[in-house]
Design brief:
Blueprint lengths: L2 E5 L7 H10 L1 H6 L2 E2 L15 H8 L3 H17 L4 E5 L10 H14 L4 E6 L2 H14 L7 H25 L4 E5 H5 L3 H10 L5 H4 L11 H17 L7 H10 L2 H6 L3 H25 L3 H6 L4 H8 L5
Parallel strand pairs: 1-3, 1-4, 2-3, 4-5
Helix pairs in contact: 1-9, 3-4, 4-5, 6-7, 6-14, 7-14
Length: about 300
C-alpha cells in the first residue's frame, strides 16, 4: 500500500515556503516516486497545500475526505508513486478535535499505510514573536499589550499541546525536527530531504526568501486600524469577507508604502520588530508557571529546543 507522509508545520517554521517549493517541484518529486497532490477541486485555501482536507475533518465532512483520499491513492498508483506527501499547518490543531482525528485515521488506513506525521519545532520566543507579528499584520492583534496578552500566553503553549497530542497517539509515527538545525543551511531543501530522501533543486526555493515580505509590513500595519474601524461600524469581525472586500477595493497598498520616506519607513519597521518582541517577553513574565508546565509531556530534546528561547 502507498505510504503517507503528512507534514504538519508548525506555524512560522518555513511551512509556506516549503509548500510553494513542493508545488513548484511537483514533476521532479513524481519522477522520484513522491506524489504531492493537488488540493480539493473546490478548495477554499491555496492549492499549494492541503488545508481544506483538514478543515473537512474538523467539520466532520468525512465523505469528502474519503473521496479525496481515494482519488489521491488512485493517482499515486497510476504515476507509480510509492509515497504521497501532504502538508498543512492546520494539522497542529487536531488536538482540539480528538474524535475527528480518530475518524481521520480510520479513513486514511483504508487507502494508505499508517500515516507518518512530520513537525518542525521552534524555540518558544522565536515562535511566539513570529506568530504575534503575523497576527498584527493580518489585523487579528493589536500593539496594545492589554488587548493581546491572553492570546500571546495561549500561543506560548500551543505548540507544546500539539506535540503532546500526537506523541500520546503514537510517538513512533511522529517525527520532530529542530527549526534551528534545519534553518542553519537551506531549511526547505533540508526538510524535504529529511521527509522523503529527495534532493530538491535549491533553485526552486531561492525566490521564496521571506525577506521580500518586509516591504509589505507598513501598509499591513496601517490597515489594521482601518479593518478594525470598518468592522466595528458594520458590527462585523475585521477579517470578515464583507470588510476585507470593502477595504481591499478602496485602499491602494502600494500608495501607502510609497507615502513613507525610506529612512522613516526603516524606523517603522524597526519599531514593529522591537515592540512585538518586547510584548512577548512581557507575556513570559506574566505567567511563568504555565509555560514550563506545558513542556512536561515532551521528550527531553524537544524541551531543550523550545525552552532555549525563553527569557531567564
Amino acid at each position: 500500500m502507498t505510504a503517507l507522509i503528512f507534514h504538519g508545520g508548525h506555524y512560522k517554521t518555513g511551512t509556506t515556503s516549503l509548500q510553494h517549493a513542493l508545488r513548484a517541484g511537483e514533476a521532479g518529486l513524481a519522477a522520484a516516486g513522491i506524489l504531492y497532490p493537488s488540493g480539493l477541486s473546490d478548495a477554499q485555501f491555496s492549492d499549494v497545500q492541503h488545508a481544506d482536507l483538514v478543515t473537512d475533518c474538523f467539520a466532520g465532512k468525512f465523505d469528502r475526505v474519503e473521496t479525496y483520499l481515494a482519488q489521491v491513492a488512485t493517482a499515486a498508483q497510476a504515476k507509480n508513486c510509492g509515497t504521497v506527501l501532504l502538508s498543512s499547518e492546520l494539522t497542529t490543531s487536531f488536538h482540539r478535535f480528538p474524535d475527528q482525528f480518530r475518524r481521520w485515521l480510520e479513513i486514511a488506513a483504508k487507502h494508505f499505510d499508517t500515516p507518518r506525521y512530520v513537525f518542525v519545532v521552534r524555540d518558544a520566543l522565536g515562535y511566539a514573536v513570529s506568530m504575534y507579528r503575523e497576527l498584527v499584520k493580518s489585523g487579528r492583534a493589536s500593539f496594545h499589550f492589554d488587548a493581546v496578552k491572553d492570546e500571546l500566553l495561549r500561543l506560548l503553549c500551543e505548540q507544546q499541546r500539539s506535540i503532546a497530542f500526537f506523541r500520546a497517539w503514537d510517538p513512533s509515527q511522529v517525527t520532530l525536527h529542530s527549526f534551528k538545525t534545519l534553518a542553519e543551511d537551506r531549511l526547505v531543501e533540508n526538510l524535504v530531504k529529511e521527509m522523503t530522501g529527495y534532493d530538491l533543486d535549491p533553485l526552486i526555493s531561492m525566490h521564496l526568501n521571506s525577506s521580500r515580505k518586509k516591504a509589505q509590513n507598513i501598509p499591513a500595519l496601517l490597515l489594521n486600524d482601518v479593518y478594525a474601524l470598518i468592522g466595528a461600524s458594520l458590527d462585523r469581525d475585521p477579517l470578515s469577507t464583507q470588510v476585507q472586500t470593502m477595504v481591499r477595493g478602496s485602499v491602494k497598498r502600494g500608495k501607502l508604502r510609497r507615502a513613507f520616506e525610506d529612512e522613516f519607513a526603516a524606523k517603522v519597521e524597526q519599531a514593529f520588530l522591537s515592540v512585538t518582541e518586547k510584548h512577548v517577553r512581557r507575556a513570559f513574565d506574566l505567567d511563568r508557571a504555565a509555560f514550563p508546565d506545558s513542556l512536561e509531556p515532551l521528550p527531553a530534546e524537544v524541551r531543550d529546543w523550545i525552552a532555549a528561547g525563553a527569557p531567564a
